[in-house]
Amino acid sequence: MATPTSPPPDLPEPGSLGESFDVYEVEVTEDGARYYGELEETREAVEKRLATRFRDRGYRVRLARETGEDVLVATERSTGVEGVPWLNVALFLATVGTTMLAGTQWYGLGFDSSPVEWLSAWPFAAAVLSVLAVHEFGHYVASRYHDVEATLPYFIPVPTALGTLGAVIRMKGHIPDREALFDIGVAGPLAGLVATVVVTAIGVSLPPIDVSNAGRLAYATQYELGYPPLIQLIAAVLGQPLQYADPGLAVNPVLIGGWVGAFVTFLNLLPVGQLDGAHVSRALVGEQVEFLRYVLPIALFGLAAALLVFADGRAVGIWVLWGLLTLVLGSAGTATPLDDSPVDRRRKAVGALMLVLGALCFTPVPIVVSV
Predict the structure, then answer these.
(1) With 70 as the cut, is the pLDDT of residue 5 above it?
(2) Cβ pair 163, 103 in contact under 8 A
(3) 163: nearest Cα among 216, 220, 97
(4) Using an 8 Å Cβ cutoff, are 273 and 326 in contact?
(5) What is the DSSP string of 218-255?
(6) Nearest to 280 by CA among 334, 228, 333
(7) For the whole prediction, is pTM greater than 0.70?
(8) Are the CB atoms for 248 and 242 separated by under 8 Å?
(9) How far apart are CA 366 and CA 315, in angstroms?
């Protein structure tokens, strides 16, 4: 067999990759190299074993099957932001627009409001976007700390009552160990909860708005929010109401940002798929977390059934939808770190705290459409 072409000096030589991946050809690329070889183990086992070696040299790898050949693709890693992230910027600006539009309805202004009136909805947009941004940048900062490639947040603009479906970041390559997986997973909810507490405290302290002349299309008259214990506790500590005896008054729309933060935190802490809760749980208990992908949908469908029987069917659709989503998310699997060594006691304590905080963000009937 011919000797494979040598890769760039900073990449491993073909013969050093071990007997489990017998390399017979190397193709040098602009940002790395492609190793063609024959597998003696499963693709997952070989990729996991070699990923650490390449990661230490500044590359990420993936094993693929192309035109009947197994190829290990090595590309340069970069944890920085190269150039202007135009897509992130465009999506953020679009989400500012959709949340401002949604805000006009929470303030009872109407879709036919003037541009100047639209601008008056900025507190609502700022509240919603701040809790989402702080959550995602929590993940981003933790990823950078552990030298894991991650994109800046992608905001998702939609013309709904909130103006957005949230924001996401995308991680590339492998997670080095369970400690990094835990830190990255927990950083978002923790940071988001801090923002949620601040926004909620501001929202309950601001005066209510008058919706007596808002009309039936105003969101403040269409939707009834269920406040989780965390928001109720903050309001109680500050001595502020969450409801008013006068039906013409509604909570200040800034408080909706706190509600969004709590609801998003609870949903993200569900231990399934690529959600934050799955990362945290996988880091804490290892591969045993896989059984939750079967238990969680049953629990959510059970919650929907209970609401159907005991709560006149309020919010049933939300939990049926999330029961279906967890079935889909669970089939995608969870992140697997390269080093499966257990995390320390400090992180286990933080994990226990997150269970409590997640429970404080839960309410069985988060939102109801008024008729």
Answers:
(1) no
(2) yes
(3) 97
(4) yes
(5) SHHHHEEEPPPHHHHHHHHHHT--SS-SSTTEE--THH
(6) 334
(7) yes
(8) no
(9) 7
Residue 47 has which token pair?
A: 């990729």
Tokens 């940071």 appear where?
A: 191
Say if residues 355 and 305 touch (Cβ distance below 8 Å).
no
The stretch 295-310 carries a mean pLDDT of 95
Q: Rounded distance, CA 95 to CA 84, Å?
A: 18
CA angle (165, 166, 168) in 5-degree steps: 125
Structure-token pair, residue 229: 């214990």
DSSP 290-351: GGHHHHHHHHHHHHHHHHHHHSTTTTHHHHHHHHHHHHHHHHT-----SB-PPP-HHHHHHH
Write down the H helix ranges in 21-114: 43-56, 86-106
Asked if 314 and 307 count as a contact pair (C-beta separation under 8 A), the reply is yes
Encode pLDDT of 150-202 as tens digits. 999 999 999 989 999 999 999 888 899 999 999 999 999 999 999 999 999 99
Candidates 88, 92, 130; CA nearest to 260 is 130
pLDDT tens-place string over residues 104-160: 889 888 666 677 777 889 999 999 999 999 999 999 999 999 999 999 999 999 998
User: Collapsing DSSP states into helix, strand and coil, what is residue 83?
Assistant: coil
Query: Whole-number mean pLDDT of the chain?
Result: 90
